Amino acid sequence: VENPLPDYKTTLEYLVQKFQDTSTSNKQHKFWETQPVGQFKDVGDSSLPEGPIELPKPLSEVKQEPYNLPNLYEWTVCDMDSDEICNEVYVLLTNNYVEDDDNLFRFNYSKEFLRWALHPPAYYQSWHIGVRVKSSKKLVAFITGIPVKMRVRDEIVKMAEVNFLCVHKKLRSKRLAPVMIKEVTRRIHLENIWQAAYTAGVLLPTPVITCQYWHRTLNPKKLIDVGFSRLGDRMTMSRAIKLYKLPSSTSTPGLRKMELCDVPAVTRLLKNYLSQFVVAPDFDDNEVEHWLLPQENVVDSYVVDSQDTHEITDFISFYTLPSSILNNQNHSILKAAYSFYNVSTRVPLLQLMNDALIIAKQKDYDVFNALDVMENESFLKELKFGQGDGQLYYYLYNYRLRNALKPSELGLVLL
Ligand code: MYA
To answer: Distance from the CA of 165 to the center of ligand 1, in angstroms?
Structure first.
């Protein structure tokens, strides 16, 4: 939801202050205090070494049996290739996953999107974990991991990306989430992987980067109707429509949809581009093919195929994540595009991103979202993105960084 925040809300002082405020109101982190993550008491202590907090254990010392769930529940592995199971996951998330602070919208990841998100090269099915009610077999909770090679400064670290943690609304606040996190951790350890990356809208011990979403209105009338944005002072609907109007076709010569044959060139561009950030994934051809080859209503990617040399010089991409609109008479789905990975070498990033907006508008998206990571700050204001409310915190598990990073030092987008 659009709502400008003062800049100080992203600073470390602000986080420490916020932590102190919540801890005096007696908010402890009974679970997170036991985990190998940066703790709030250590914020600003630059004597602590960078790198793993705990050393790997021999695999024989990793607990071999699953953690115990409360008696009424059982673990299940979710095979996302099964239409039936994929649908159960979809229904659980559609009704119980992340909402905005005002409970106006809830993420509505599509089934195709969930399959894509959970089946990258070399994924582990055992990391797609569900919880069922023993008696009825109803799926009531979910958590997932996928493998990724992450570069932190000049080291490549095998990590898991943990996502889609969800507990049914009726089972909240029963400490189910910590058991699920421990169980996914155990299964990741069994593959000899000891680090993870994850994001959340809630403040936990302790973020490595605090980011913000920015929103570019494409369909002002609908966004205002559903309460996503408001007409500011001295703004009328017709002025808003005019303000956000975009050309009907893109401006970059040679811009076309990415194809399979572009994979090696895009991998090279992306590898080179991401090398400038402190934390970024290290993608090979197979991963680029998986994450960036266009899939209808899941991920869109465009390359600039230079007309003189037939080289791929630039590319842009976004993924599709609609939200359910809760309690509105006229609209039930907000169609949102999310900026993914973009690389500019020949064409200015501003122009490429303007073309991304034009494409998203042509495809009938209502809004185009982007985080302030990578070089995104260079185009957000100019292209009429508005700052969102709330933060997105990035975390690393069992890996300490000496200081929190700026969003522009991060080359990672999680789904
Ligand atoms: S972020 C998206 C999270 N999902 C949602 O927001 C959907 C709606 N909400 C829910 O479904 C529930 O509220 C959830 C919590 C399931 C979030 N990340 O069971 P509880 C801590 C981590 O009584 P519930 C995403 O998917 C909380 O601080 N921890 O609470 C990334 C408290 O611990 P402590 C969280 O509300 C997930 C404890 O849980 C989160 O019923 C990354 C309370 O448990 C959160 N988003 O359920 C997971 N929310 O007392 C970590 C609450 O200590 C991965 N909590 O404060 C770590 C890496 C693991 C792999 C390592 C491999 C080496």
So the answer is: 6
The yes-or-no answer on residue 415 being catalytic is yes
Q: How many CA atoms lie within 13 A of 146 on its CB side?
A: 20
User: What's the pLDDT tens digit per position in 317-326?
Assistant: 999 999 999 9
pLDDT of residue 15: 52
Instruction: List ligand 1's pocket residues with C-beta within 6 A.
Output: 29-32, 96-98, 160, 162-167, 172-178, 181, 184-185, 188, 193-196, 198, 200, 202, 204, 397-398
Q: Name the residue at shortest CA distance from atom 41 of ligand 1.
A: 172
C-beta separation of 371 from 413 below 8 A: yes
Reference 411, options 253, 282, 321; nearest CA is 282
Average pLDDT over residues 221-233: 95
Atom 62 in ligand 1: residue holding the nearest Cα: 185
Atom of ligand 1 nearest to the CA of 34: 53
- In the predicted model, what is the mean pLDDT of residues 103-126? 98
| CA distances, 198 to each of 103, 219, 270, 327, 387 (Å) | 23, 31, 21, 30, 22
